[in-house]
Design goal:
The complex is a heterodimer of chains A (316) and B (277).
Chain A (H helix, E strand, L loop, with lengths): L1 H27 L5 H8 L5 H10 L6 H13 L13 H36 L4 H15 L2 H11 L19 H35 L2 H8 L4 H39 L4 H10 L3 H29 L2 H4 L1
Helix pairs in contact in A: 1-4, 1-12, 5-6, 5-8, 5-10, 6-8, 7-8, 7-10, 8-10, 9-10, 10-11, 10-12, 11-12
Chain B lengths: L1 H8 L3 H18 L1 H4 L31 H37 L1 H15 L3 H12 L3 H11 L1 H15 L3 H8 L4 H37 L11 H8 L8 H28 L6
Helix pairs in contact in B: 2-4, 2-12, 4-5, 4-7, 4-8, 4-10, 4-12, 5-8, 6-7, 8-10, 9-10, 10-11, 10-12, 11-12
Protein backbone atom coordinates (compact mmCIF):
# COMPACT_ATOMS: atom_id res chain seq x y z
CA UNK A 1 0.00 0.00 0.00
CA UNK A 2 2.87 2.38 0.81
CA UNK A 3 4.51 1.74 -2.55
CA UNK A 4 1.17 2.27 -4.27
CA UNK A 5 0.64 5.57 -2.44
CA UNK A 6 4.16 6.73 -3.25
CA UNK A 7 3.77 5.95 -6.95
CA UNK A 8 0.45 7.78 -7.08
CA UNK A 9 1.88 10.83 -5.34
CA UNK A 10 4.83 10.83 -7.72
CA UNK A 11 2.52 10.67 -10.73
CA UNK A 12 0.78 13.80 -9.44
CA UNK A 13 3.86 15.98 -9.63
CA UNK A 14 4.03 16.40 -13.42
CA UNK A 15 0.29 17.12 -13.52
CA UNK A 16 0.54 19.77 -10.80
CA UNK A 17 3.57 21.24 -12.57
CA UNK A 18 1.59 21.40 -15.81
CA UNK A 19 -1.33 22.99 -13.98
CA UNK A 20 0.96 25.71 -12.62
CA UNK A 21 2.30 26.41 -16.13
CA UNK A 22 -1.21 26.72 -17.56
CA UNK A 23 -2.30 29.07 -14.76
CA UNK A 24 0.85 31.14 -15.22
CA UNK A 25 0.46 31.36 -18.99
CA UNK A 26 -3.21 32.20 -18.61
CA UNK A 27 -2.17 35.55 -17.16
CA UNK A 28 1.01 36.11 -19.14
CA UNK A 29 0.37 34.84 -22.66
CA UNK A 30 -3.20 35.73 -23.45
CA UNK A 31 -3.80 38.87 -25.48
CA UNK A 32 -2.70 41.93 -23.59
CA UNK A 33 -0.89 40.68 -20.53
CA UNK A 34 -3.40 40.93 -17.71
CA UNK A 35 -1.33 43.15 -15.45
CA UNK A 36 -0.59 45.43 -18.39
CA UNK A 37 -4.33 45.54 -18.92
CA UNK A 38 -4.87 46.44 -15.29
CA UNK A 39 -2.22 49.14 -15.57
CA UNK A 40 -4.05 50.39 -18.65
CA UNK A 41 -7.05 51.18 -16.47
CA UNK A 42 -4.94 53.38 -14.19
CA UNK A 43 -5.05 56.46 -16.39
CA UNK A 44 -3.87 58.86 -13.72
CA UNK A 45 -0.48 57.15 -13.37
CA UNK A 46 2.65 58.72 -14.79
CA UNK A 47 4.80 56.58 -17.12
CA UNK A 48 7.48 56.46 -14.44
CA UNK A 49 5.05 55.09 -11.88
CA UNK A 50 3.88 52.48 -14.38
CA UNK A 51 7.47 51.44 -15.05
CA UNK A 52 7.95 51.12 -11.29
CA UNK A 53 4.86 48.90 -10.96
CA UNK A 54 5.90 46.81 -13.93
CA UNK A 55 9.24 46.18 -12.25
CA UNK A 56 7.47 45.43 -8.99
CA UNK A 57 5.48 42.69 -10.73
CA UNK A 58 8.64 41.49 -12.48
CA UNK A 59 7.19 42.18 -15.92
CA UNK A 60 10.52 43.52 -17.19
CA UNK A 61 12.11 40.05 -16.96
CA UNK A 62 11.89 37.30 -19.59
CA UNK A 63 8.94 34.90 -19.27
CA UNK A 64 10.85 31.86 -17.92
CA UNK A 65 12.42 34.02 -15.21
CA UNK A 66 8.99 35.39 -14.30
CA UNK A 67 7.67 31.83 -14.04
CA UNK A 68 10.61 30.77 -11.86
CA UNK A 69 9.99 33.71 -9.52
CA UNK A 70 6.29 33.00 -9.41
CA UNK A 71 6.53 29.25 -8.75
CA UNK A 72 9.17 29.79 -6.05
CA UNK A 73 6.88 32.15 -4.19
CA UNK A 74 3.91 29.81 -4.80
CA UNK A 75 5.68 26.87 -3.19
CA UNK A 76 6.27 29.04 -0.13
CA UNK A 77 2.54 29.78 0.02
CA UNK A 78 2.83 33.28 -1.41
CA UNK A 79 0.09 33.56 -4.04
CA UNK A 80 0.66 37.29 -4.55
CA UNK A 81 -1.46 40.23 -3.43
CA UNK A 82 -4.85 41.42 -4.60
CA UNK A 83 -4.62 44.39 -6.98
CA UNK A 84 -7.70 45.88 -5.30
CA UNK A 85 -7.30 45.31 -1.60
CA UNK A 86 -3.53 44.89 -1.43
CA UNK A 87 -4.05 41.92 0.87
CA UNK A 88 -2.35 38.53 0.31
CA UNK A 89 -4.53 36.39 -1.96
CA UNK A 90 -4.25 32.97 -0.34
CA UNK A 91 -5.75 33.71 3.13
CA UNK A 92 -8.79 35.34 1.50
CA UNK A 93 -9.28 32.30 -0.73
CA UNK A 94 -8.90 29.84 2.14
CA UNK A 95 -11.49 31.82 4.10
CA UNK A 96 -14.02 31.12 1.32
CA UNK A 97 -12.96 27.53 0.71
CA UNK A 98 -15.16 25.89 3.39
CA UNK A 99 -18.33 27.34 1.82
CA UNK A 100 -17.54 25.92 -1.63
CA UNK A 101 -16.38 22.63 -0.13
CA UNK A 102 -19.59 22.28 1.82
CA UNK A 103 -21.78 22.95 -1.23
CA UNK A 104 -19.78 20.37 -3.19
CA UNK A 105 -20.03 17.70 -0.50
CA UNK A 106 -23.74 18.30 0.08
CA UNK A 107 -24.41 18.15 -3.67
CA UNK A 108 -22.58 14.82 -3.80
CA UNK A 109 -24.69 13.59 -0.88
CA UNK A 110 -27.87 14.62 -2.70
CA UNK A 111 -26.65 12.88 -5.86
CA UNK A 112 -25.84 9.62 -4.06
CA UNK A 113 -29.10 9.67 -2.10
CA UNK A 114 -31.01 9.77 -5.39
CA UNK A 115 -28.71 7.67 -7.57
CA UNK A 116 -28.22 4.60 -5.37
CA UNK A 117 -31.84 3.55 -4.78
CA UNK A 118 -33.02 4.56 -8.26
CA UNK A 119 -30.07 2.94 -10.02
CA UNK A 120 -30.54 -0.32 -8.12
CA UNK A 121 -34.28 -0.28 -8.81
CA UNK A 122 -33.65 0.22 -12.53
CA UNK A 123 -31.16 -2.65 -12.67
CA UNK A 124 -33.50 -5.03 -10.86
CA UNK A 125 -36.33 -4.11 -13.22
CA UNK A 126 -34.16 -4.22 -16.32
CA UNK A 127 -36.07 -4.09 -19.57
CA UNK A 128 -39.40 -3.16 -17.97
CA UNK A 129 -41.34 0.05 -18.50
CA UNK A 130 -40.04 1.32 -15.14
CA UNK A 131 -36.46 0.88 -16.37
CA UNK A 132 -37.22 2.83 -19.54
CA UNK A 133 -38.88 5.62 -17.57
CA UNK A 134 -35.86 5.83 -15.26
CA UNK A 135 -33.50 5.94 -18.25
CA UNK A 136 -35.36 8.87 -19.82
CA UNK A 137 -35.72 10.61 -16.45
CA UNK A 138 -31.96 10.26 -16.06
CA UNK A 139 -31.33 11.89 -19.42
CA UNK A 140 -33.73 14.71 -18.55
CA UNK A 141 -31.97 15.25 -15.21
CA UNK A 142 -28.67 15.40 -17.06
CA UNK A 143 -30.01 18.03 -19.45
CA UNK A 144 -31.37 20.64 -17.07
CA UNK A 145 -28.79 23.40 -16.59
CA UNK A 146 -28.06 23.65 -12.87
CA UNK A 147 -28.29 27.46 -12.89
CA UNK A 148 -31.74 27.31 -14.49
CA UNK A 149 -32.92 24.65 -12.04
CA UNK A 150 -31.67 26.91 -9.25
CA UNK A 151 -33.49 29.91 -10.72
CA UNK A 152 -36.72 27.95 -11.13
CA UNK A 153 -36.54 26.64 -7.57
CA UNK A 154 -36.15 30.20 -6.32
CA UNK A 155 -39.10 31.26 -8.43
CA UNK A 156 -41.34 28.38 -7.35
CA UNK A 157 -40.41 28.55 -3.70
CA UNK A 158 -40.52 32.35 -3.69
CA UNK A 159 -43.53 32.23 -1.38
CA UNK A 160 -42.08 29.60 0.91
CA UNK A 161 -38.49 30.85 1.08
CA UNK A 162 -38.44 34.64 0.82
CA UNK A 163 -35.92 35.58 -1.87
CA UNK A 164 -34.63 38.22 0.55
CA UNK A 165 -33.20 35.42 2.70
CA UNK A 166 -31.04 34.24 -0.20
CA UNK A 167 -27.44 35.20 0.32
CA UNK A 168 -27.57 35.30 4.08
CA UNK A 169 -25.02 32.65 4.76
CA UNK A 170 -24.67 31.08 8.19
CA UNK A 171 -21.59 29.06 9.09
CA UNK A 172 -21.80 25.33 9.70
CA UNK A 173 -20.61 25.67 13.28
CA UNK A 174 -22.49 28.85 14.13
CA UNK A 175 -25.90 27.32 13.45
CA UNK A 176 -26.00 23.92 11.69
CA UNK A 177 -29.76 24.02 11.05
CA UNK A 178 -29.73 27.48 9.48
CA UNK A 179 -26.61 26.50 7.54
CA UNK A 180 -28.27 23.45 6.02
CA UNK A 181 -31.45 25.43 5.29
CA UNK A 182 -29.44 27.96 3.31
CA UNK A 183 -27.47 25.32 1.43
CA UNK A 184 -30.30 22.86 0.70
CA UNK A 185 -31.42 24.47 -2.56
CA UNK A 186 -27.91 25.10 -3.91
CA UNK A 187 -26.86 21.53 -3.11
CA UNK A 188 -30.00 20.12 -4.72
CA UNK A 189 -29.63 22.27 -7.87
CA UNK A 190 -26.05 21.13 -8.27
CA UNK A 191 -26.64 17.50 -7.29
CA UNK A 192 -29.45 16.59 -9.68
CA UNK A 193 -27.34 16.30 -12.84
CA UNK A 194 -24.73 14.27 -10.98
CA UNK A 195 -27.48 12.01 -9.64
CA UNK A 196 -28.49 11.31 -13.23
CA UNK A 197 -24.93 10.36 -14.22
CA UNK A 198 -24.34 8.17 -11.16
CA UNK A 199 -27.72 6.49 -11.42
CA UNK A 200 -26.97 5.21 -14.91
CA UNK A 201 -23.61 4.00 -13.75
CA UNK A 202 -25.01 2.20 -10.69
CA UNK A 203 -27.50 0.48 -12.95
CA UNK A 204 -25.02 -0.77 -15.55
CA UNK A 205 -22.44 -1.71 -12.94
CA UNK A 206 -24.98 -3.74 -10.94
CA UNK A 207 -26.22 -5.48 -14.09
CA UNK A 208 -22.67 -6.47 -14.93
CA UNK A 209 -22.07 -7.88 -11.46
CA UNK A 210 -25.38 -9.75 -11.47
CA UNK A 211 -24.10 -11.72 -14.47
CA UNK A 212 -21.02 -12.91 -12.57
CA UNK A 213 -20.55 -16.50 -11.47
CA UNK A 214 -20.27 -15.71 -7.78
CA UNK A 215 -23.74 -14.25 -7.90
CA UNK A 216 -25.01 -17.41 -9.53
CA UNK A 217 -23.23 -19.40 -6.81
CA UNK A 218 -24.85 -17.30 -4.10
CA UNK A 219 -28.24 -17.93 -5.67
CA UNK A 220 -27.51 -21.61 -6.20
CA UNK A 221 -26.80 -22.13 -2.52
CA UNK A 222 -30.28 -20.88 -1.82
CA UNK A 223 -29.51 -17.41 -0.49
CA UNK A 224 -32.51 -15.13 -0.40
CA UNK A 225 -32.54 -12.58 -3.19
CA UNK A 226 -32.11 -9.49 -1.04
CA UNK A 227 -29.03 -11.04 0.57
CA UNK A 228 -27.64 -11.88 -2.87
CA UNK A 229 -28.12 -8.27 -3.89
CA UNK A 230 -26.98 -6.59 -0.69
CA UNK A 231 -24.17 -8.83 0.40
CA UNK A 232 -22.72 -10.01 -2.89
CA UNK A 233 -23.79 -7.91 -5.83
CA UNK A 234 -24.16 -4.32 -4.60
CA UNK A 235 -20.90 -4.16 -2.68
CA UNK A 236 -18.94 -5.11 -5.76
CA UNK A 237 -21.07 -3.05 -8.10
CA UNK A 238 -20.42 0.14 -6.15
CA UNK A 239 -16.63 -0.07 -6.46
CA UNK A 240 -16.43 1.34 -10.01
CA UNK A 241 -18.95 4.02 -9.03
CA UNK A 242 -16.26 5.49 -6.77
CA UNK A 243 -14.15 6.26 -9.85
CA UNK A 244 -17.02 8.05 -11.54
CA UNK A 245 -17.51 10.19 -8.44
CA UNK A 246 -13.87 11.28 -8.64
CA UNK A 247 -14.20 12.03 -12.30
CA UNK A 248 -17.36 14.05 -11.73
CA UNK A 249 -15.84 16.07 -8.89
CA UNK A 250 -14.80 18.47 -11.67
CA UNK A 251 -18.46 19.04 -12.51
CA UNK A 252 -19.21 19.84 -8.86
CA UNK A 253 -16.19 22.11 -8.38
CA UNK A 254 -16.90 24.02 -11.59
CA UNK A 255 -20.65 24.05 -10.99
CA UNK A 256 -20.37 25.52 -7.52
CA UNK A 257 -18.87 28.67 -9.07
CA UNK A 258 -22.09 29.22 -11.01
CA UNK A 259 -24.41 28.11 -8.20
CA UNK A 260 -22.75 30.40 -5.65
CA UNK A 261 -23.47 33.29 -7.98
CA UNK A 262 -27.18 32.38 -8.27
CA UNK A 263 -27.64 32.05 -4.51
CA UNK A 264 -25.19 34.83 -3.60
CA UNK A 265 -23.17 32.51 -1.38
CA UNK A 266 -19.76 33.68 -0.14
CA UNK A 267 -17.66 30.86 -1.62
CA UNK A 268 -14.55 30.78 -3.79
CA UNK A 269 -16.60 30.90 -6.98
CA UNK A 270 -18.27 34.16 -6.11
CA UNK A 271 -14.94 35.59 -5.00
CA UNK A 272 -13.53 34.63 -8.40
CA UNK A 273 -16.42 36.21 -10.31
CA UNK A 274 -16.15 39.42 -8.29
CA UNK A 275 -12.41 39.46 -8.92
CA UNK A 276 -13.04 38.96 -12.65
CA UNK A 277 -15.41 41.93 -12.66
CA UNK A 278 -12.72 44.05 -11.01
CA UNK A 279 -9.87 42.71 -13.18
CA UNK A 280 -8.16 41.52 -10.01
CA UNK A 281 -6.14 38.83 -11.78
CA UNK A 282 -3.95 37.54 -8.93
CA UNK A 283 -7.14 36.54 -7.10
CA UNK A 284 -8.57 34.84 -10.20
CA UNK A 285 -5.28 33.04 -10.74
CA UNK A 286 -5.12 31.90 -7.12
CA UNK A 287 -8.66 30.52 -7.12
CA UNK A 288 -8.20 28.64 -10.40
CA UNK A 289 -5.01 27.14 -8.99
CA UNK A 290 -6.61 26.15 -5.67
CA UNK A 291 -9.65 24.56 -7.33
CA UNK A 292 -7.53 22.64 -9.86
CA UNK A 293 -5.32 21.33 -7.03
CA UNK A 294 -8.43 20.29 -5.09
CA UNK A 295 -9.68 18.40 -8.14
CA UNK A 296 -6.33 16.62 -8.52
CA UNK A 297 -6.27 15.73 -4.81
CA UNK A 298 -9.87 14.44 -4.90
CA UNK A 299 -8.84 12.11 -7.70
CA UNK A 300 -5.84 10.96 -5.70
CA UNK A 301 -8.15 10.26 -2.76
CA UNK A 302 -10.46 8.33 -5.08
CA UNK A 303 -7.56 6.24 -6.41
CA UNK A 304 -6.45 5.42 -2.89
CA UNK A 305 -9.98 4.59 -1.77
CA UNK A 306 -10.38 2.37 -4.81
CA UNK A 307 -7.18 0.51 -4.02
CA UNK A 308 -8.36 0.16 -0.43
CA UNK A 309 -11.70 -1.46 -1.30
CA UNK A 310 -10.36 -3.44 -4.27
CA UNK A 311 -6.92 -4.88 -3.41
CA UNK A 312 -6.41 -6.13 -7.00
CA UNK A 313 -5.72 -2.53 -8.04
CA UNK A 314 -2.67 -2.25 -5.80
CA UNK A 315 -0.92 -5.15 -7.48
CA UNK A 316 -2.27 -4.56 -10.99
CA UNK B 1 -23.80 -1.41 -45.07
CA UNK B 2 -25.64 1.90 -45.31
CA UNK B 3 -28.98 0.10 -45.60
CA UNK B 4 -28.16 -1.88 -42.49
CA UNK B 5 -27.58 1.31 -40.53
CA UNK B 6 -30.89 2.84 -41.60
CA UNK B 7 -32.62 -0.44 -40.78
CA UNK B 8 -31.17 -0.35 -37.28
CA UNK B 9 -32.15 3.24 -36.64
CA UNK B 10 -35.80 2.24 -36.64
CA UNK B 11 -35.01 0.06 -33.66
CA UNK B 12 -33.47 2.94 -31.72
CA UNK B 13 -36.38 5.20 -30.76
CA UNK B 14 -34.16 7.07 -28.31
CA UNK B 15 -31.72 8.14 -31.03
CA UNK B 16 -34.62 9.05 -33.35
CA UNK B 17 -36.24 11.22 -30.67
CA UNK B 18 -32.93 12.99 -30.08
CA UNK B 19 -32.36 13.41 -33.81
CA UNK B 20 -35.81 14.96 -34.26
CA UNK B 21 -35.19 17.50 -31.49
CA UNK B 22 -31.78 18.43 -32.88
CA UNK B 23 -33.15 18.73 -36.43
CA UNK B 24 -36.00 20.93 -35.20
CA UNK B 25 -33.56 23.26 -33.47
CA UNK B 26 -31.30 23.45 -36.51
CA UNK B 27 -34.31 24.28 -38.67
CA UNK B 28 -35.52 26.91 -36.20
CA UNK B 29 -32.07 28.52 -36.10
CA UNK B 30 -31.74 28.49 -39.89
CA UNK B 31 -35.23 29.89 -40.42
CA UNK B 32 -35.10 32.36 -37.53
CA UNK B 33 -35.59 35.44 -39.76
CA UNK B 34 -38.71 33.89 -41.27
CA UNK B 35 -40.11 32.41 -38.06
CA UNK B 36 -39.45 35.25 -35.61
CA UNK B 37 -42.57 37.39 -35.07
CA UNK B 38 -40.44 40.46 -34.31
CA UNK B 39 -36.97 41.96 -34.50
CA UNK B 40 -34.95 40.32 -31.66
CA UNK B 41 -33.38 43.68 -30.84
CA UNK B 42 -36.48 45.80 -31.44
CA UNK B 43 -37.81 47.44 -28.27
CA UNK B 44 -41.46 48.21 -27.68
CA UNK B 45 -41.63 50.79 -24.89
CA UNK B 46 -45.39 50.30 -24.48
CA UNK B 47 -45.04 46.53 -23.97
CA UNK B 48 -42.40 46.06 -21.28
CA UNK B 49 -42.54 42.64 -19.61
CA UNK B 50 -45.78 41.88 -21.46
CA UNK B 51 -47.27 38.48 -20.62
CA UNK B 52 -47.34 35.73 -23.27
CA UNK B 53 -50.21 36.05 -25.72
CA UNK B 54 -51.30 38.20 -28.61
CA UNK B 55 -48.39 39.32 -30.76
CA UNK B 56 -45.87 37.91 -28.31
CA UNK B 57 -46.41 34.14 -27.84
CA UNK B 58 -43.65 33.96 -25.18
CA UNK B 59 -44.10 37.51 -23.84
CA UNK B 60 -41.57 40.36 -23.85
CA UNK B 61 -38.57 41.23 -21.70
CA UNK B 62 -37.72 44.33 -19.68
CA UNK B 63 -37.02 46.35 -22.84
CA UNK B 64 -40.17 45.16 -24.58
CA UNK B 65 -38.23 42.80 -26.85
CA UNK B 66 -40.06 39.72 -28.10
CA UNK B 67 -38.86 36.65 -26.12
CA UNK B 68 -39.67 34.10 -28.85
CA UNK B 69 -37.73 36.07 -31.46
CA UNK B 70 -34.78 36.36 -29.11
CA UNK B 71 -34.92 32.61 -28.41
CA UNK B 72 -34.89 31.84 -32.14
CA UNK B 73 -31.93 34.14 -32.80
CA UNK B 74 -30.32 32.89 -29.59
CA UNK B 75 -30.46 29.38 -31.05
CA UNK B 76 -28.22 30.61 -33.87
CA UNK B 77 -25.63 31.88 -31.41
CA UNK B 78 -25.72 28.90 -29.08
CA UNK B 79 -25.73 26.24 -31.82
CA UNK B 80 -23.04 27.97 -33.89
CA UNK B 81 -20.74 28.34 -30.88
CA UNK B 82 -21.35 24.75 -29.77
CA UNK B 83 -20.84 23.17 -33.19
CA UNK B 84 -17.73 25.23 -33.90
CA UNK B 85 -16.15 24.50 -30.52
CA UNK B 86 -16.90 20.77 -30.68
CA UNK B 87 -15.53 20.67 -34.25
CA UNK B 88 -12.34 22.19 -32.85
CA UNK B 89 -12.23 19.61 -30.05
CA UNK B 90 -12.88 16.70 -32.46
CA UNK B 91 -10.17 17.85 -34.85
CA UNK B 92 -7.58 18.68 -32.19
CA UNK B 93 -8.34 15.90 -29.73
CA UNK B 94 -8.99 13.31 -32.43
CA UNK B 95 -5.72 14.04 -34.22
CA UNK B 96 -3.77 14.07 -30.95
CA UNK B 97 -5.28 10.78 -29.81
CA UNK B 98 -4.76 9.05 -33.16
CA UNK B 99 -1.13 10.15 -33.39
CA UNK B 100 -0.44 9.21 -29.77
CA UNK B 101 -2.16 5.86 -30.07
CA UNK B 102 -0.51 4.96 -33.37
CA UNK B 103 3.05 6.01 -32.61
CA UNK B 104 3.10 5.29 -28.87
CA UNK B 105 6.25 6.02 -26.89
CA UNK B 106 7.39 9.57 -26.38
CA UNK B 107 4.83 11.12 -28.75
CA UNK B 108 2.01 9.38 -26.92
CA UNK B 109 3.47 10.21 -23.50
CA UNK B 110 3.83 13.90 -24.28
CA UNK B 111 0.39 14.27 -25.86
CA UNK B 112 -1.41 12.45 -23.09
CA UNK B 113 0.41 14.34 -20.31
CA UNK B 114 -0.71 17.61 -21.90
CA UNK B 115 -4.28 16.27 -22.06
CA UNK B 116 -4.02 15.20 -18.39
CA UNK B 117 -3.12 18.76 -17.46
CA UNK B 118 -6.14 20.23 -19.29
CA UNK B 119 -8.24 17.51 -17.68
CA UNK B 120 -6.99 18.55 -14.24
CA UNK B 121 -9.13 21.70 -14.48
CA UNK B 122 -12.88 21.55 -13.99
CA UNK B 123 -14.11 22.31 -17.54
CA UNK B 124 -16.43 25.19 -16.66
CA UNK B 125 -13.80 26.78 -14.43
CA UNK B 126 -11.09 26.70 -17.11
CA UNK B 127 -13.52 28.17 -19.65
CA UNK B 128 -14.47 30.92 -17.17
CA UNK B 129 -10.81 31.72 -16.51
CA UNK B 130 -9.95 31.90 -20.21
CA UNK B 131 -12.95 34.11 -20.98
CA UNK B 132 -12.23 36.37 -18.00
CA UNK B 133 -8.70 37.03 -19.15
CA UNK B 134 -8.84 36.79 -22.94
CA UNK B 135 -12.05 38.79 -23.35
CA UNK B 136 -15.44 37.83 -24.66
CA UNK B 137 -15.07 37.83 -28.45
CA UNK B 138 -17.08 35.09 -30.23
CA UNK B 139 -13.87 33.42 -31.41
CA UNK B 140 -12.59 33.27 -27.85
CA UNK B 141 -15.76 31.54 -26.63
CA UNK B 142 -15.32 28.90 -29.33
CA UNK B 143 -11.62 28.43 -28.56
CA UNK B 144 -12.20 28.22 -24.79
CA UNK B 145 -15.01 25.65 -25.00
CA UNK B 146 -13.16 23.73 -27.71
CA UNK B 147 -10.04 23.53 -25.58
CA UNK B 148 -11.73 22.26 -22.42
CA UNK B 149 -13.47 19.42 -24.30
CA UNK B 150 -10.40 18.37 -26.33
CA UNK B 151 -9.02 15.77 -23.86
CA UNK B 152 -12.17 13.62 -24.05
CA UNK B 153 -11.67 13.19 -27.79
CA UNK B 154 -7.97 12.49 -27.38
CA UNK B 155 -8.73 9.73 -24.87
CA UNK B 156 -11.57 8.18 -26.85
CA UNK B 157 -9.67 8.13 -30.15
CA UNK B 158 -6.42 6.95 -28.56
CA UNK B 159 -8.15 4.05 -26.84
CA UNK B 160 -9.81 3.02 -30.11
CA UNK B 161 -6.56 3.26 -32.06
CA UNK B 162 -4.81 1.07 -29.49
CA UNK B 163 -7.47 -1.59 -30.06
CA UNK B 164 -7.28 -1.27 -33.82
CA UNK B 165 -3.62 -0.79 -34.73
CA UNK B 166 -2.53 -4.37 -34.00
CA UNK B 167 -5.36 -5.94 -36.00
CA UNK B 168 -4.51 -8.06 -39.01
CA UNK B 169 -5.96 -5.81 -41.67
CA UNK B 170 -3.80 -2.94 -40.46
CA UNK B 171 -0.75 -5.22 -40.49
CA UNK B 172 -1.76 -6.28 -44.00
CA UNK B 173 -2.00 -2.68 -45.18
CA UNK B 174 1.42 -2.01 -43.75
CA UNK B 175 2.82 -5.15 -45.36
CA UNK B 176 1.68 -4.10 -48.82
CA UNK B 177 3.51 -0.83 -48.31
CA UNK B 178 0.76 1.64 -47.40
CA UNK B 179 2.12 4.85 -45.89
CA UNK B 180 1.29 6.01 -42.38
CA UNK B 181 -1.05 8.70 -43.63
CA UNK B 182 -2.98 6.21 -45.74
CA UNK B 183 -3.20 3.68 -42.93
CA UNK B 184 -4.47 6.29 -40.48
CA UNK B 185 -6.95 7.86 -42.85
CA UNK B 186 -8.25 4.81 -44.71
CA UNK B 187 -7.93 1.96 -42.24
CA UNK B 188 -7.91 3.32 -38.72
CA UNK B 189 -10.14 6.41 -38.83
CA UNK B 190 -13.23 4.66 -40.26
CA UNK B 191 -12.95 1.99 -37.61
CA UNK B 192 -12.75 4.34 -34.68
CA UNK B 193 -15.46 6.69 -35.91
CA UNK B 194 -18.27 5.07 -33.90
CA UNK B 195 -17.01 6.08 -30.45
CA UNK B 196 -16.04 9.49 -31.82
CA UNK B 197 -19.56 10.09 -33.15
CA UNK B 198 -21.09 9.16 -29.79
CA UNK B 199 -18.63 11.41 -27.95
CA UNK B 200 -19.37 14.25 -30.38
CA UNK B 201 -23.07 14.14 -29.60
CA UNK B 202 -22.49 14.05 -25.84
CA UNK B 203 -19.91 16.85 -26.07
CA UNK B 204 -22.35 19.02 -28.01
CA UNK B 205 -24.71 18.82 -25.05
CA UNK B 206 -21.88 19.87 -22.71
CA UNK B 207 -20.83 22.68 -25.07
CA UNK B 208 -24.38 24.09 -25.08
CA UNK B 209 -24.46 23.98 -21.27
CA UNK B 210 -21.04 25.63 -21.02
CA UNK B 211 -21.87 28.37 -23.51
CA UNK B 212 -25.06 29.19 -21.62
CA UNK B 213 -23.27 29.10 -18.26
CA UNK B 214 -20.62 31.51 -19.57
CA UNK B 215 -23.23 33.84 -21.04
CA UNK B 216 -25.27 33.56 -17.84
CA UNK B 217 -22.24 34.80 -15.90
CA UNK B 218 -21.69 37.62 -18.39
CA UNK B 219 -18.52 35.99 -19.76
CA UNK B 220 -19.94 34.55 -22.98
CA UNK B 221 -22.13 36.06 -25.67
CA UNK B 222 -22.47 39.76 -24.90
CA UNK B 223 -25.75 41.73 -24.94
CA UNK B 224 -27.56 42.88 -26.95
CA UNK B 225 -26.83 39.76 -29.07
CA UNK B 226 -29.35 37.29 -27.70
CA UNK B 227 -28.16 33.99 -26.26
CA UNK B 228 -30.13 31.72 -23.97
CA UNK B 229 -27.63 32.22 -21.16
CA UNK B 230 -27.64 36.00 -21.17
CA UNK B 231 -31.44 36.09 -21.52
CA UNK B 232 -31.65 33.98 -18.37
CA UNK B 233 -29.20 36.29 -16.60
CA UNK B 234 -31.26 39.36 -17.59
CA UNK B 235 -34.45 37.72 -16.40
CA UNK B 236 -33.27 37.19 -12.85
CA UNK B 237 -34.10 40.70 -11.72
CA UNK B 238 -37.58 40.57 -13.20
CA UNK B 239 -38.54 36.95 -12.83
CA UNK B 240 -41.05 37.43 -10.05
CA UNK B 241 -42.89 40.01 -12.18
CA UNK B 242 -42.32 38.19 -15.48
CA UNK B 243 -41.56 34.50 -14.92
CA UNK B 244 -41.77 33.81 -18.68
CA UNK B 245 -38.50 35.63 -19.23
CA UNK B 246 -36.81 33.03 -17.01
CA UNK B 247 -38.81 29.92 -17.93
CA UNK B 248 -38.49 29.91 -21.73
CA UNK B 249 -34.72 30.44 -22.19
CA UNK B 250 -33.92 27.72 -19.65
CA UNK B 251 -36.41 25.34 -21.21
CA UNK B 252 -34.85 26.04 -24.62
CA UNK B 253 -31.44 25.04 -23.27
CA UNK B 254 -32.73 21.96 -21.46
CA UNK B 255 -34.58 20.66 -24.54
CA UNK B 256 -31.67 20.88 -26.99
CA UNK B 257 -29.28 19.41 -24.40
CA UNK B 258 -31.76 16.57 -23.93
CA UNK B 259 -31.83 16.15 -27.73
CA UNK B 260 -28.06 15.74 -27.95
CA UNK B 261 -28.06 13.41 -24.93
CA UNK B 262 -30.81 11.22 -26.40
CA UNK B 263 -29.01 11.15 -29.73
CA UNK B 264 -25.66 10.27 -28.16
CA UNK B 265 -27.18 7.66 -25.89
CA UNK B 266 -29.17 6.06 -28.69
CA UNK B 267 -26.18 6.07 -31.03
CA UNK B 268 -24.08 4.39 -28.37
CA UNK B 269 -26.61 1.56 -28.22
CA UNK B 270 -26.54 1.27 -32.00
CA UNK B 271 -22.84 1.65 -32.67
CA UNK B 272 -21.19 0.12 -29.65
CA UNK B 273 -22.71 -3.28 -28.90
CA UNK B 274 -20.28 -3.84 -26.03
CA UNK B 275 -22.01 -1.17 -24.00
CA UNK B 276 -25.46 -2.56 -24.64
CA UNK B 277 -26.78 -3.91 -21.38
Amino acid sequence: MTAFLASRLLALLPVLWGVSIVVFLLIHLLPGNAIQMFLGTQVDMTPAQMEELRRLFGLDKPLPAQYADWITRLVRGDFGVSLRTGRPVLPDILLRLPVSAEITVLALAVALAIALPVGVAAALRRGTAADAVIRVAGLVGLSIPNFWLATMLLLLLGNVVPIASVGIYVGMFADPVANLTVLALPAFSLGVALAAVLMRFVRSSLLEVLGQEYVRTARAKGLREYLVINRHALRNALIPVITVVGFQAGYLLGGTVVIEEVFALPGMGRLALNAIAQRDYPVVQGIVLVIACLFVLVNLAVDVLYAFVDPRVRYG
Amino acid sequence: MRGAIWGQIGRAPVAVAGGVIVAAYLAAAALAPALAPADPLGMEPHALLAAPGGGHPFGTDQFGRDVLSRLLYGARTSLAVSFASVALAVAGGGAAGILGGYYGGLVDGTIMRVMDVIFAFPAVLLAIAIMAIAGTAAGTIIAAIGLVYTPQFARVSRASVLQTRGLEYVEAARAVGAGVRRILARHILPNISAPLIVQTSLSLSLAILTESALSFLGLGTQPPTPSWGNMLADSRRFMVLAPWTAIFPGAAIALIVLGFNLLGDGLRDLLDPRLRL
